[in-house]
Write a structure and sequence with these properties.
By secondary structure, this protein is of the alpha+beta class. It has one domain: Aminopeptidase (3-Layer(aba) Sandwich). It is about 30% helix and about 30% strand. The protein is globular and about 40 Å long. The structure holds coenzyme A (COA). Coenzyme A (COA) binds next to helix 2, strand 5, helix 4 and helix 5.
Amino acid sequence: MGIEPPLPDQIVVDQDITLRPMFTVDPEVMHARIHENLDHLGRFLVWARADYDLDGVMAFAEEKRTRWNDPQHEQGFGIFFQGEFAGAVGIKGFASLTAAVEIGYWLSEHLQGRGMMTRSVSALIKLAFETYDMNQIIIKAAPGNSRSRAIPERLGFTETGLLRQMSKNAHGELLDLVNYSLLRSEWQP
Ligand SMILES: CC(C)(COP(=O)(O)OP(=O)(O)OC[C@H]1O[C@@H](n2cnc3c(N)ncnc32)[C@H](O)[C@@H]1OP(=O)(O)O)[C@@H](O)C(=O)NCCC(=O)NCCS
Protein backbone atom coordinates (compact mmCIF):
# COMPACT_ATOMS: atom_id res chain seq x y z
CA MET A 1 0.00 0.00 0.00
CA GLY A 2 1.20 3.52 -0.79
CA ILE A 3 1.40 6.53 1.49
CA GLU A 4 -2.15 7.69 2.27
CA PRO A 5 -3.20 10.30 1.45
CA PRO A 6 -0.73 10.53 -1.48
CA LEU A 7 2.02 13.11 -1.00
CA PRO A 8 1.24 16.55 -2.45
CA ASP A 9 2.62 17.45 -5.91
CA GLN A 10 3.64 20.81 -4.52
CA ILE A 11 4.09 22.41 -1.11
CA VAL A 12 4.02 26.19 -1.11
CA VAL A 13 6.14 27.11 1.90
CA ASP A 14 5.81 30.86 1.41
CA GLN A 15 5.97 33.44 -1.39
CA ASP A 16 9.61 32.59 -2.19
CA ILE A 17 9.86 28.85 -1.55
CA THR A 18 8.05 25.93 -3.18
CA LEU A 19 8.80 22.21 -2.71
CA ARG A 20 8.23 19.85 -5.63
CA PRO A 21 8.93 16.12 -6.01
CA MET A 22 12.60 15.47 -6.70
CA PHE A 23 11.82 13.55 -9.88
CA THR A 24 10.40 16.73 -11.44
CA VAL A 25 13.76 18.52 -11.16
CA ASP A 26 15.64 18.69 -14.49
CA PRO A 27 18.49 16.14 -14.04
CA GLU A 28 20.96 18.44 -15.81
CA VAL A 29 20.15 21.26 -13.42
CA MET A 30 20.43 18.91 -10.43
CA HIS A 31 23.76 17.58 -11.71
CA ALA A 32 25.07 21.13 -12.21
CA ARG A 33 24.02 22.24 -8.70
CA ILE A 34 25.65 19.22 -7.09
CA HIS A 35 28.90 19.70 -9.00
CA GLU A 36 29.05 23.43 -8.23
CA ASN A 37 28.79 22.42 -4.56
CA LEU A 38 30.99 19.31 -4.29
CA ASP A 39 33.33 20.71 -1.62
CA HIS A 40 30.46 22.18 0.37
CA LEU A 41 28.31 19.01 0.27
CA GLY A 42 31.05 16.38 0.29
CA ARG A 43 32.19 17.23 3.83
CA PHE A 44 28.98 15.70 5.18
CA LEU A 45 27.19 13.76 2.41
CA VAL A 46 28.54 10.49 1.04
CA TRP A 47 27.03 10.78 -2.44
CA ALA A 48 28.47 14.23 -3.26
CA ARG A 49 31.43 12.90 -5.24
CA ALA A 50 33.11 13.98 -8.47
CA ASP A 51 32.14 10.66 -10.12
CA TYR A 52 28.42 11.24 -9.54
CA ASP A 53 27.67 11.74 -13.22
CA LEU A 54 24.55 12.69 -15.16
CA ASP A 55 23.58 9.02 -15.65
CA GLY A 56 23.72 8.56 -11.89
CA VAL A 57 21.53 11.61 -11.32
CA MET A 58 19.03 10.36 -13.93
CA ALA A 59 18.90 6.92 -12.29
CA PHE A 60 18.31 8.60 -8.93
CA ALA A 61 15.46 10.70 -10.37
CA GLU A 62 13.88 7.65 -11.98
CA GLU A 63 13.98 5.72 -8.72
CA LYS A 64 12.36 8.69 -6.98
CA ARG A 65 9.64 8.74 -9.64
CA THR A 66 8.82 5.03 -9.50
CA ARG A 67 8.91 4.91 -5.69
CA TRP A 68 7.03 8.16 -5.03
CA ASN A 69 4.44 7.36 -2.34
CA ASP A 70 6.23 4.12 -1.42
CA PRO A 71 6.29 4.21 2.40
CA GLN A 72 9.48 2.08 2.47
CA HIS A 73 11.40 4.68 0.45
CA GLU A 74 12.82 8.14 1.17
CA GLN A 75 10.62 10.81 -0.39
CA GLY A 76 12.60 13.75 -1.75
CA PHE A 77 11.43 17.28 -2.55
CA GLY A 78 13.39 19.78 -4.60
CA ILE A 79 13.47 23.24 -3.05
CA PHE A 80 12.73 26.06 -5.50
CA PHE A 81 13.68 29.54 -4.34
CA GLN A 82 12.08 32.23 -6.49
CA GLY A 83 11.82 29.56 -9.20
CA GLU A 84 15.48 28.48 -8.98
CA PHE A 85 16.39 24.93 -7.90
CA ALA A 86 18.23 25.50 -4.62
CA GLY A 87 18.60 22.11 -2.91
CA ALA A 88 16.57 19.28 -1.48
CA VAL A 89 14.78 18.07 1.60
CA GLY A 90 13.86 14.43 2.14
CA ILE A 91 11.63 12.55 4.53
CA LYS A 92 11.69 8.83 5.26
CA GLY A 93 10.08 6.37 7.62
CA PHE A 94 6.39 6.50 6.72
CA ALA A 95 6.28 2.74 7.31
CA SER A 96 7.76 3.10 10.81
CA LEU A 97 5.84 1.20 13.50
CA THR A 98 6.44 4.03 15.95
CA ALA A 99 5.35 6.74 13.51
CA ALA A 100 8.81 8.33 13.55
CA VAL A 101 10.06 9.97 10.36
CA GLU A 102 13.53 11.32 9.64
CA ILE A 103 14.27 14.48 7.67
CA GLY A 104 17.51 15.21 5.78
CA TYR A 105 18.56 18.13 3.57
CA TRP A 106 21.10 20.06 1.51
CA LEU A 107 21.26 23.52 0.02
CA SER A 108 23.48 25.27 -2.53
CA GLU A 109 26.21 27.09 -0.65
CA HIS A 110 25.40 30.50 -2.14
CA LEU A 111 21.77 30.28 -0.95
CA GLN A 112 22.59 29.59 2.70
CA GLY A 113 21.78 32.10 5.41
CA ARG A 114 18.24 33.05 4.36
CA GLY A 115 16.31 30.61 6.55
CA MET A 116 15.24 28.66 3.48
CA MET A 117 15.98 25.24 4.97
CA THR A 118 14.51 26.02 8.36
CA ARG A 119 11.28 27.09 6.66
CA SER A 120 11.24 24.06 4.34
CA VAL A 121 11.84 21.61 7.21
CA SER A 122 9.15 23.36 9.20
CA ALA A 123 6.67 22.79 6.35
CA LEU A 124 7.52 19.07 6.24
CA ILE A 125 7.13 18.77 10.01
CA LYS A 126 3.66 20.29 9.74
CA LEU A 127 2.79 17.86 6.94
CA ALA A 128 4.08 14.86 8.93
CA PHE A 129 2.20 15.76 12.10
CA GLU A 130 -1.01 17.16 10.67
CA THR A 131 -1.61 15.13 7.51
CA TYR A 132 0.14 11.85 8.33
CA ASP A 133 -0.41 11.68 12.08
CA MET A 134 3.27 10.97 12.80
CA ASN A 135 4.48 10.97 16.38
CA GLN A 136 8.12 11.96 16.09
CA ILE A 137 10.53 13.74 13.74
CA ILE A 138 14.22 12.86 13.78
CA ILE A 139 17.12 14.88 12.36
CA LYS A 140 20.73 13.65 12.50
CA ALA A 141 23.79 15.82 11.95
CA ALA A 142 27.53 15.42 12.43
CA PRO A 143 28.88 17.13 15.59
CA GLY A 144 30.94 19.53 13.47
CA ASN A 145 28.10 20.43 11.11
CA SER A 146 27.04 23.54 12.96
CA ARG A 147 24.75 24.90 10.22
CA SER A 148 22.87 21.62 10.03
CA ARG A 149 22.60 21.29 13.83
CA ALA A 150 21.25 24.83 14.07
CA ILE A 151 18.12 23.79 12.15
CA PRO A 152 16.65 21.29 14.67
CA GLU A 153 17.89 23.50 17.50
CA ARG A 154 16.06 26.52 16.01
CA LEU A 155 12.91 24.43 15.59
CA GLY A 156 12.74 23.24 19.20
CA PHE A 157 14.11 19.69 18.82
CA THR A 158 15.79 17.94 21.77
CA GLU A 159 19.29 16.50 21.42
CA THR A 160 18.98 12.89 22.56
CA GLY A 161 22.38 11.35 22.02
CA LEU A 162 25.35 10.59 19.84
CA LEU A 163 25.30 7.80 17.24
CA ARG A 164 28.91 6.71 16.80
CA GLN A 165 30.33 6.30 13.29
CA MET A 166 26.87 6.15 11.72
CA SER A 167 27.68 7.91 8.46
CA LYS A 168 30.44 8.61 5.95
CA ASN A 169 31.29 11.67 3.95
CA ALA A 170 32.29 11.79 0.28
CA HIS A 171 35.95 11.30 1.26
CA GLY A 172 35.18 8.02 3.02
CA GLU A 173 35.66 9.45 6.51
CA LEU A 174 33.38 8.02 9.22
CA LEU A 175 31.14 10.55 10.94
CA ASP A 176 29.37 10.42 14.27
CA LEU A 177 25.83 11.80 14.21
CA VAL A 178 24.03 13.83 16.86
CA ASN A 179 20.42 12.64 17.11
CA TYR A 180 17.70 15.27 17.47
CA SER A 181 14.06 14.45 18.11
CA LEU A 182 10.80 16.41 18.16
CA LEU A 183 7.71 14.72 19.59
CA ARG A 184 4.28 15.67 18.38
CA SER A 185 3.38 16.62 21.98
CA GLU A 186 6.28 19.12 22.00
CA TRP A 187 5.54 20.69 18.62
CA GLN A 188 4.53 24.33 18.53
CA PRO A 189 3.12 25.05 15.05
C1 LIG B 1 22.74 22.33 6.42
C2 LIG B 1 22.34 23.47 5.50
C3 LIG B 1 21.12 23.09 4.69
C4 LIG B 1 22.01 24.69 6.38
O1 LIG B 1 21.79 25.82 5.55
P1 LIG B 1 21.47 27.24 6.22
O2 LIG B 1 21.35 28.22 5.14
O3 LIG B 1 22.43 27.50 7.32
O4 LIG B 1 20.04 27.02 6.90
P2 LIG B 1 18.77 27.94 6.66
O5 LIG B 1 18.45 28.01 5.21
O6 LIG B 1 17.72 27.46 7.57
O7 LIG B 1 19.27 29.38 7.08
C5 LIG B 1 19.59 29.70 8.43
C6 LIG B 1 20.26 31.04 8.44
O8 LIG B 1 19.37 32.01 7.87
C7 LIG B 1 19.03 33.00 8.85
N1 LIG B 1 17.62 33.33 8.63
C8 LIG B 1 17.19 34.37 7.91
N2 LIG B 1 15.85 34.37 7.85
C9 LIG B 1 15.43 33.29 8.55
C10 LIG B 1 14.15 32.75 8.84
N3 LIG B 1 13.03 33.32 8.39
N4 LIG B 1 14.07 31.62 9.55
C11 LIG B 1 15.18 31.01 10.01
N5 LIG B 1 16.42 31.48 9.78
C12 LIG B 1 16.55 32.62 9.05
C13 LIG B 1 19.38 32.34 10.18
O9 LIG B 1 19.67 33.31 11.16
C14 LIG B 1 20.61 31.56 9.79
O10 LIG B 1 21.67 32.45 9.59
P3 LIG B 1 23.18 32.20 10.10
O11 LIG B 1 23.41 30.73 10.26
O12 LIG B 1 24.00 32.77 9.01
O13 LIG B 1 23.23 32.91 11.37
C15 LIG B 1 23.52 23.85 4.56
O14 LIG B 1 24.58 24.36 5.32
C16 LIG B 1 24.03 22.65 3.74
O15 LIG B 1 23.42 22.29 2.76
N6 LIG B 1 25.17 22.06 4.18
C17 LIG B 1 25.81 20.98 3.41
C18 LIG B 1 24.97 19.71 3.37
C19 LIG B 1 24.65 19.21 4.75
O16 LIG B 1 25.47 19.30 5.65
N7 LIG B 1 23.45 18.67 4.91
C20 LIG B 1 22.99 18.17 6.19
C21 LIG B 1 23.55 16.84 6.48
S1 LIG B 1 23.04 16.36 8.13
